[in-house]
Amino acid sequence: GTPFETVAMTATSDTRFYDLYYGIPALCYGGHGRGLHSPDEAVDLASLQQTTVIIARFIAAWCGLRPLRPA
Question: What CA dihedral angle connects 32, 14, 9 and 43, to 10 degrees?
């Protein structure tokens, strides 16, 4: 893997409500985008695919799933 890239911006997401109202830590993680909330908003599809794989592997590890053995 690669180290996380730290990005700071003035935009917010709904993750703030989890901590603010329920005391649940939250992380906003996703693909690389541009033109956020503008008519030209877009996401880099390769980074979205990579994000999907990372989140799927995290969930599988958290749930204790193991690779299937061929029959």
Answer: 20
User: Which tokens is 51 given?
Assistant: 């994000």
- Per-residue pLDDT tens over the stretch 38-60: 899 999 999 999 999 999 999 99
Q: Which two tokens stand for residue 18?
A: 């989890």
pLDDT at 15 over 90: no
CA distances from 67 to 5, 26, 30, 58, 59 (A): 29, 28, 25, 14, 13
Give burial (CB, 10 Å; 0-12/13-18/19+) of 27.
Answer: exposed
Structure tokens, 23: 């005391």
